[in-house]
Write a structure and sequence with these properties.
- There is one protein chain.
- The chain is mostly helical.
- The protein has 10 helices and no strands.
- The protein has helices at 18-31, 35-56, 63-77, 87-108, 118-125, 133-143, 148-159, 164-171, 175-197, 205-209.
- The radius of gyration is 20 Å and the shape is globular.
- The two termini are 30 Å apart.
Length: 210
């Protein structure tokens, strides 16, 4: 079994990265009617939205539709985006609301379906044929065992690279709570990795002879 290395929890996530600054600039330019900026904005964040929605949504078949809904909502609301937070955090907040609305709709009109687990959708959103892909799939399998709030905090800060302050605002909780959830998620994942690396028990000669 390939055991993945966990993402590092560095303080660099306290500040938006240069990539986030570029994406935010594209969003602001797109608000002004720059069609090329719209394309760059969507391309830069499409994979993050897919991964985040897949972690929140229990229906893998709905992931693409929810991602599309997220971008339609975002593009329709760009005129209200002022760049006070990063465009990534702003878009993921919209994705969160899109999933919540979908779950409320499904609760009112439930649908019978034999669906695989949510991690299948996340796996399908991963790029295949790249170094570390198998590691990433293994990590997703471990993430499935975490409580929802800890998994979301870990995904936002450690996989999607959102600053803790923005993850806290998105999750509507204090920064300290996000830190605590991430720390507990990492501790659980480290324990699971350690268990996975343990060699299987060797049967004693007496039992083998029996």
């Amino acid at each position: 079994m390939i055991t993945p290395a966990l993402p590092l929890s560095h303080e660099r996530r306290e500040r938006p990265t240069s990539a986030d600054e570029s994406i935010t600039a594209w969003a602001l330019a797109a608000r002004g009617g720059d069609s090329a900026a719209v394309d760059r904005f969507v391309r830069a964040l499409h994979r993050d939205v897919i991964r985040y929605v897949a972690h929140l949504c229990a229906d893998p078949q709905a992931v693409d539709d929810l991602a599309q809904d997220t971008f339609l909502r975002a593009l329709g609301s760009l005129h209200r985006f002022e760049g006070r937070s990063s465009a990534r955090a702003w878009l993921l907040a919209i994705a969160r609301r899109a999933v919540a609305d979908s779950l409320r709709y499904t609760a009112v009109r439930p649908r019978r379906a034999d669906l695989p687990e949510w991690e299948l959708a996340v796996e399908l959103a991963q790029p295949r044929g790249l170094p570390g892909f198998d590691d990433g799939v293994a990590l997703l399998e471990l993430l499935a065992s975490l409580p929802d709030e800890r998994r979301e905090a870990f995904v936002l800060t450690q996989l999607l690279g959102l600053p803790y302050a923005e993850a806290a605002e998105l999750s509507d909780c204090p920064v300290g709570t996000v830190r605590s959830r991430v720390a507990r998620a990492r501790a659980t994942l480290m324990d699971l990795l350690a268990e996975a690396e343990q060699p299987p028990p060797v049967a004693s000669p007496a039992l083998a002879a029996a």
